[in-house]
Amino acid sequence: MQQIVGSSSPDMDLIKLGCVFFMILEFFKGSRKSILSHLVHGVELFNRTGHGQESNSYDFMADTILSRMGLLQCLYGRPRKAHFPSSYRTSSHVRNHHLQTFQNLEEARDALVVLAASVLDFVGRVFYSAEPSSDNDFSEQEALSSRLQQWSNLARTLLTGLQNRTDERSKNSSDSVAIATVFLATATDQSEISYDHHINAFRFIVDTAVDIAHEIRVSESAPRLFSFDPGLILCLFFTAIKCRDRDIRRKTVAMLRLVPAREGMWDATEAALVAEEAVRWEEGSMVGSSGGCLPVIPDTARIYDTDLEECVDNKQSVLRIKFRYKANACFQDAIVFVDLPATDKRKSPR
Length: 350
Hints:
The chain is mainly alpha-helical.
């Protein structure tokens, strides 16, 4: 990137924005490897340039956009391939936002992007660690939980000042907080069974998504094709994968067919296809339960992580999906192939 800029001391923030720009271009071309390459270079710049109190609004804007793209490329599961910026572990951005009152929704949402990325960074490190969770892990988990709660309190105060005027952005943020809270609470358990205790949170996420989709359909005359925001697709996809309530799952998959086509590195059509295959794969392993209860999915047949494999030919109409599950205390991968539609018929609210 520095060679492209052609300067011995290029503007780092301009290069970060350049990384984001090329990520978007590669996303529309369908090249995930190139997306990750640009993201990794942007993250390296993020870590190298530092983030102190003296950062100006332009610095923060560049870092926030990069953070948002990093959050949105989660590879349909926990972030294994492209790590989040290391500053999320001692993030000055999170500390700066931790105690202040939000002046507007944009400021609240920017703080949430960084906080949510901090949560996913923690989840990725703890969940796949070969060692049992340590006291430091539990302390970090508690601190992040406290930050999420404080964000919710500050956001509630902000909305009260706005006379309880809620819109799509504030509802999106509520869903993001809900899914981050669930992932944080289950990170140290290292068992998919723990997600069964969060059915109410998953139901809230889907019900909120229904309201948001309705608002988009009413307020926009043309389909929304792209967004930088961590909006509906990410939350709905995680719900479809992690919530094993049959009714909520099916409602969630149906919603993925109705939301905006793309949000950051997320594609709604792909997310729906992957979610459908995940549900089919897991429910094929259901076992009967005693006492007339509904069949349950054993932990050994539950998907822990999901990933998409890069196609050899970008024009290829087959999606290679990798499901990671835990059998006999060891992670194993199952490969599923799905035919993509011959034409791009992604549905957005009209």
